[in-house]
Amino acid sequence: MAGKILVVYATKFGSTKEVAENIGEVIKAKNIPVDVRKVSSVKDLSKYSAIIFGTPIRMGKPISEAMSFIKKYETGLNAVPVAFFSVGLYMKEDTPDTREKAIQCMEPVLELVTKPVSIGLFGGKIDYNTMPVILRWMFLKDKSGQLSEGDWRNWESITSWIEEILPELRREVRG
Ligand SMILES: Cc1cc2nc3c(=O)[nH]c(=O)nc-3n(C[C@H](O)[C@H](O)[C@H](O)COP(=O)(O)O)c2cc1C
């Protein structure tokens, strides 16, 4: 029987945590047992029948905490249905080009955990107040407009994504 789902996330400034929490709420509202945890607080995957894993994209790849988690739990992640999601500025707009760029950033994860049920690609958030001073200064200096403040997380598409893939995550794990 399908059991508890783990939503596990890495984050630098909290926006991926909020996406993970939102996903957790959608699952909970369907009376499905779920835990939402930061990568550093997960010690054991064995009690979960499915896993949803999220990371921000930074410099074109998942953040290092995310990759450490994937490397450490590669075997466990390959043993149950998993879904990935990423949060980043490439997905400010949802087009075939931005999707291609965003999916490429997830390659390091896909090399280790090869058959996810789905990969959700979501827009991220820039809030200068959450950044260390040096980073804020670098972002403010950028004149391209690419690094301006904003929140591009589309809660509707995040909710539809999780609702769409839940049946697949809940399917029985085959030996
Ligand atoms: C230094 C830095 C580099 C970033 N590089 C990328 C990138 O290469 N591609 C991308 O799509 N987003 C990039 N972003 C945007 C973040 O992924 C986005 O702000 C995300 O919402 C941050 O997640 P967090 O709040 O969970 O840390 C970058 C952000 C920062 C601060």
Overview features:
single chain; 175 residues; alpha/beta; Rossmann fold; six-stranded mixed beta sheet; two-stranded antiparallel sheet; 7 helices; 38% helix; globular; binds flavin mononucleotide
Fold and architecture overview:
- The protein is of the alpha/beta class.
- It contains 7 helices and 8 strands.
- The chain has one domain: Rossmann fold, CATH 3.40.50.
- Strands 1, 2, 3, 4, 5 and 6 form a 6-stranded mixed beta sheet that branches. Strands 7-8 form a two-stranded antiparallel ribbon.
- Strand 1 (4-9), helix 1 (15-29) and strand 2 form a beta-alpha-beta unit.
- The site of flavin mononucleotide (FMN) has 19 residues, from helix 1, strand 3, strand 5 and strand 7.
Q: Provide the residue-averaged pLDDT.
A: 95
CATH architecture: 3-Layer(aba) Sandwich
Number of strands: 8
What is the name of the CATH class? Answer: Alpha Beta
How many whole angstroms does the radius of gyration measure? 16 Å
When the domains are counted, the total is 1
The CATH superfamily name is: Flavodoxin domain
Bound molecules: flavin mononucleotide
Stated plainly, the CATH topology is called Rossmann fold
Work out the strand percent: 15-25%
Largest sheet: 6 strands, mixed
Shape: globular
- Report how far apart the termini are: 13 Å
Quick description:
38% of the residues lie in helices and 23% in strands. The chain is built from seven helices and eight strands; from the N terminus they run βαβββααβααββαβα. Strands 1, 2, 3, 4, 5 and 6 form a six-stranded mixed sheet that branches.
